[in-house]
Each structure stands twice: as structure tokens, then as C-alpha cells.
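Subject: complex prediction, re-run

Hi both,

The earlier run crashed halfway through, so I resubmitted it with identical inputs.
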Amino acid sequence: MSEHTPNSYMNQPDERGHFGQFGGRYVAETLMPLILDLEREYRKAKADPAFKAEFDDLLEHYVGRPSPLYFAPRITEELAKNAPPGKGAQIWFKRDELNHTGAHKINNCIGQILLAMRMGKTRIIAETGAGQHGVATATVCARFGLPCTVFMGATDVARQAPNVFRMKLLGAQVVPVTSGRGTLKDAMNEALRDWVANVHDTFYIIGTAAGPHPYPELVRDFQSVIGREARAQMLSRTGRLPDLLVAAIGGGSNAIGLFHPFLDDPDVKMLGVEAAGHGLDGDEHAASLAGGFPGILHGNKTYLLQDEDGQITEGHSISAGLDYPGIGPEHAWLKESGRVDYTYATDKEALDAFQLLCRTEGIIPALEPSHAIAAIVKVAPTMPKDAIICANLCGRGDKDIFTVAEALGVEM
Amino acid sequence: MSTRFQTTFAKGPALVCFITAGDGDTAANLDALVAGGADVIELGMPFTDPMADGPAIQAANIRALGNGTKTADVLKLAADFRARHPEVPLVLMGYANPMIRRGPEWFAEEAAKAGVDGVISVDLAPEEDQDLGPALRDKGISLIRLATPTTDDKRIPAVLEGSSGFLYYVSVAGITGKQQAAMASIEENVQRIKSHTDLPVAVGFGVRTPEQAAEIAKVADGVVVGSAFIDLVEKHGAQAPQHLKALVEGLAKAVHSARKATA
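This time it finished cleanly. Structure:
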């Protein structure tokens, strides 16, 4: 490992929170002192063995880590059928869908609520799109007895009723946001407005590796447990590292969590998969890297879906968790540096991949990792039979069965 | 040569008036504000995601964008305003992304051509000055920064570094258009800030009435009013100018009365 060499990909961001030209701290002045305070407190926590011990203990006994690393024989076989002779890579899944609450989101929420309590904050707020991060936040708030307010776009409240009820069961207050189109972006605006007005006692648990520094860094660090486990598990099971890592990207927290511990392993290639919705030809997609331009939103500089005047355009994806017009700044930098490749999958390709995994492996994936699986469907048949692909199965699909039924024309 | 800001603030406490470009008949509304006694104009550049603004200004942003307002239209409104009102300081206020979209040099050049005196970029922290500050200063445009109740003495120098024109003191930790801070807190914070700088300090957020404005004008160099005007634009549409003029007259009288008191 070359963690401390100047050529390392792992020593980002710089002391000002920049990943190359991306990242940074673009917030209203009211929040700046708090952001600086959070950074100081995070540095201290990172160096504190007691903080790490508590985090690790909760991940093991409350979340259920380590999550398994699973070789998926039947999807491997299925995709090898149409491959040229000698081709058809092995497919492995990091099973973060088996975590408590059913997704990788909880890893980050555990870390952030421990930080919040260290800072003496007594109230938690969060934004949510599909509701997964909201549920994970409500869960840790219940676990630690802190009041929780979750901002959720009114459109999402209507289409994600089960998760709204889950959050309420867990004791959270869910605030429907009617500004804008009532989706994730608007929920984040409203959470920032609440935070500005309540900085003295409130901690904002951001759900993805984006936002003002130090959020992209700390969310990445908390999610990196995924990649650290996968790396150790793969070495112990196969004696070598994978050839390709694949993960879906909305804001990009599950992907950066898987990728980061491998960034300085030059033989490990990485592929991030954005949501191409109805395709990149029109505006109905959420692929910020493939279809966006660098800009400033929600505290960081990154690739954004925007028009020629810098107005933010609304994304679309069948997966509410990927339906966001931006992306974490570290991904923007990893794209420009060439270390990670990025591609995209459409709604239809994700739906096909969703069904393929259900039938071949007996696993119902969330629509988010279904995008990663869709990319594997294309890439596995081009790789040698002894090559290893490791994908992050970052969420389970129970929450998505109604959306999938509707898309398939099935009445429930 | 003194700037328009210097000339204006030299007269004593000034009334700073904000409206959103493209919401209603902006040119007519701006003229009404000046006719009623506004000393400085802040013209809001609409943005899809105004995350520091309360419901009134959010809605104004959405109406303006819904009317098809483009950056070019905002610059045109500014240039036309400058032609009609050569002496009144004009500030463009908005969020960073529309300002940097075509590059900071482009924006600074166009703003300078339009006769803009200052720019407020709400989410451009002093720590990220490189994105806009150098380009504006290069064109002689003031970057006006915000200070808040959370900006402590240790941080004020960083906020002042590279800023000019005036300093905008946001009197409440919160979003625009909500409640006003206690006078005691405003007075204490303005004095605290003024101990660090000779720049005029204007106070805003939550100021709606002549009574509030008069109180603030006793302790600050300027009073900023925004949401109260936006409410009138929304309510009265094409008839807004006469209502704006009536409100601004009362506010200007209140603010300017502090001039006589201190003179």
C-alpha cells in the first residue's frame, strides 16, 4: 500500500476539502463556523481509538457486519453462455443488502450519529429520496434516543409510503417538502434551511458522499468498511484481488466505500454505473458525469445536471435512490484522473438485470444495484473466465417491488 | 474617484432594497423602489435551488424562472437600470452556480459592462474565493460578503479579506423572510463587526416595517429589505409599482431620519 506517497489516490481531499478542482465548502456563512467545527471534531474522532472501537462494535453487533462476500455461480454461468470461448468472468457480490435496514446506508448513519453525540448535538435532521437513508437515520436516532426530523420531497412521500411509515414507526418526524418538484434535491434544500436556522443544537446526517467538506470525506471513510472487508475477504477466499469492481452511483457513497480501499491497487479496475433513466438523448436521466458539467450545488463543486445558465435540471431514474442531479466530488475527481471508469444503465436495462438476479441467484436486489448488475451483464462476457468481478449489492429490493410491478405492467 | 457605494453611504444610513429579477415587471418595480427613496438596489438572480431563502423568495425565484428569465435577461435588466439611474449603486445577488457557469471572467466582464457595482454570492464562502473573487476584483466590482451571528471575531478577518463595497450582516441564523433578531443582538454584533472594518455594515433578514428599519438605522449603516417587497410583487402583479413605492417611502423616511439624528 502506498497510502502516503504523493502518487497515491488515497490521500484526497486536500486540507481545504478539495479533490482536485472538486469538493470544497460552498455554504452560506451561517453554516461555515459549524462546518469548520465538524471538521475539527472529525479529525479528533478519527484519531481516537475509543471512537473507532464503538463504531466497529455497533457495525458488528447492531448492523451485522462483516457482510458476506458471495460467489454467484448461476449468474456467472448465465452470462458466460453468450460469451466467446474462454470468456465469461466470475461474478462475486459484496452483500451489503444483508445489513440491518437493508442497505449500506446504515454504516454512515452509525458513524455520523456518534460524531453528533461527541459534538453535544441533541437533534438530528436528514434528507431522503427513496427513504432508505431516512429509515437508516431514524433507526440510529431511535437506537440512541435523539429526536429525528427527515425531509422528504412530497412526490417521494407519495410514492414511497412504506418507508414513510417505517420512519414514523421508528419515531421520526417526516416533513414533506413541496418546493421544486418535491424530490431529493428539494429535500436537501429544505434540510439545509432547517440546519441554518438550528445550527446551535442540530446535526445534519447527510446520506451520501457529497455536500460541503468534510462530509464527502467522512461519509467515504465510514462506508470504506465495505471495501476493506471485501479486500480482505477476497484475498482470504481466492488468494488474490478482484480484476474489476462495479457499483451503482447516485451520490456515490456505496461506490466510494467499495472503491476507496482498492484505489492504490493498480491491477484492480473500477466501474461506476450511473442511472441513464430513459436514455442520455433527452433530459430524462440522472447521469451527472456522463451528461452534466462541473458546477456548485449543495455545498460542493462537482458534476451537475444543469442548463446553459447554471440552473439545475431535474434528473430521472426508476430508482429513486439514484434520482439526483449531482454526484459526490471524489467521483468527479476519479473520473477526471482516469482512475475509475464510469458508465451508465437505463431503467430498462436495470429492470432486466433486477429480474435476472432474482431468477439466477434467489436474491431480490434494490433497483440501485440493479444498475451495477446491468453493467456486469455487458462487461462479464468480454472478460476471461478466470477474471473476478466484485460488485456491491448495496441494497435489497423489498422496497422496490411495487415500482417494478408497475414497470412490468403487473397489477398488485 | 469615489465609488457609488462610498458616495451613497457617506450620506448616512442607507436603505437597501432587494427584488428578484424576472418576477413581475422588474424594470417598473425597480423604478418604483428608486422613486420611493431606495438608496441601493439588490437585484436577485433567480436560481432553481435557493437554499438560504425562505418561502417568499423561493417562490419568487420559481416564478422568475417560470417566466423564462435567463442570465442574459438579468444582465439586460441591470444595464437598462444603470442607463436610467446612473447614480444608484446596483448589486447582483444570487447563488454561485449561475455566476460561474460560463466562467467567472465572463460573468465579471458582463456585470461590469452592465454597470453593476457589487455582487453577493450567497454560497460562495470566503474559503472558496478563487471561484469568483479575483475575476470580480479585476473588473472593479465589489464582492460583498455576508457576516452572521455565528461569525465570531476570529473569523471576521477572513470574511473581510477581499470584500469591499459594504458588509451585509445577516441578523438571524436562518433563512430570509422569517423573524427579526432582537435589537440588542443586532447592535452588539454590528459594533463588533465595525471594530474590525471601516466598510459600511448593512443589516438584513426579517426587516419588514419602518419601525424596525428606524431602530436598525440608529446602529448600522444600512438596512436591507427584501421579502416584504417580494410579497407585494406576488400579491399585486402589474399594480405592484405603486404599492412598492408606498412601502419604500415609509422605510426610506424611517432610515433617513437616523441621518438627521446623527448629523
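Residues 133 and 143 of chain B are 6 Å apart (CA to CA).

- K.
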